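This part of the workshop introduces the protein records we will be handling. The structure tokens are whole numbers drawn from a learned vocabulary of backbone shapes. The record below serves as our worked example for the rest of this section.

===
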Amino acid sequence: MSKIVNIPELRFKEFSGEWEEKKLGELGTFKGGGTPSKKQSAYWMGDIPWISSSDINEDCIHKINISRFINLTSIKESATKIIPKNSILFVSRVGVGKLAINKKALCTSQDFTNFIPFDVDSYYLGYFFQARTNLLKSFNQGTSIKGFTKSDIEKLKLHLPSKPEQQKIASFLTTIDTKIEQLTKKVELQEQYKKGVMQKIFNQEIRFKRDDGSEFDEWEEKRLGAYIEEYKEKSTINNQYEVLTSSNRGLVYQKEYFTEGRISNKDNLGFNIIPKDYITYRSRSDNRKFTFNINNLGVIGIISTYYPVFKFINGNNKFFVEFLNFKSSYLGKYSVGTSQTVLSLNEIKKIKLNLPSLPEQTKIANFLSTLDKQIDSTKEQLAKTKEFKKGLLQRMFV
């Protein structure tokens, strides 16, 4: 039988040789955490950061959301402890699999099993466990509160390269994380810009001009029913078309929106058919807000009868969808009900709004479409970078 060679699939060319097997407990020590009494407000007046599992992000070991601070008295009189910087903060309850590395000393809740490493690179270990989150989740046990303890993971075996190789791997993956963070921030800024400029456009603080430079006519109050044409065709067989759902992130395939087991391929006879480029929205809401979406998936779909289907005639669909979403809170006032309200399409038809002419609608729609393309381009870069990192994590560790 040939000897197993402990080397990764993907490796920097300047390194060679097998990686050494170690137990996690041999590489450092563990410290738990605790929560000072919330009834003692004096405990929460200090400058020592304290975090809970909700302050750790799912996919970034560098970012910790610090918003609460305690003092030495609260540490002495509770189970929480000071965790030195560059420790690995494992979420061992309520979010098992999440972890982060602290850049400064802090305290944690009892939801953490914190690891203070000796002669090993913290970020290398952090990325190793990010690549092996299922390994941590496999220790999940318990009934009311699932999780793992120090004794569960201290005997965990892992393979280590030399310290320089550890640092090279950690540095490289940190560069990828920095790119992901930059792209994430860019998407946020682009979306904020679009939101801000839409507010100015729809409040008529920004006006477009005709191609010849002349002014468009003033906006006029119109009833939405003058523009809306309902589409009432329904599916005549089960699974006649792909089942869709309308969400805050757009019109999407239902199978991609809900988790496994939440949807069924049966009993969709009589669903509303939604052709390409038609509009829909969920007519029921828990917060009196309603989101409108265009079917730009390139396919005919079917959707629950809770989702009316229509298009705007003598109007620009893109403009109206953006405008109605901007006016969501205003439209919500016309919904009826208590805990869950209903906004029927017939009720929408009665609503009057100040609207621009069709040529100005088109100008506005084209401008917003340009912004959408920029946002989508950045999102695509972000998705590709995340997928690239995922591939690296799978191939750079033993």
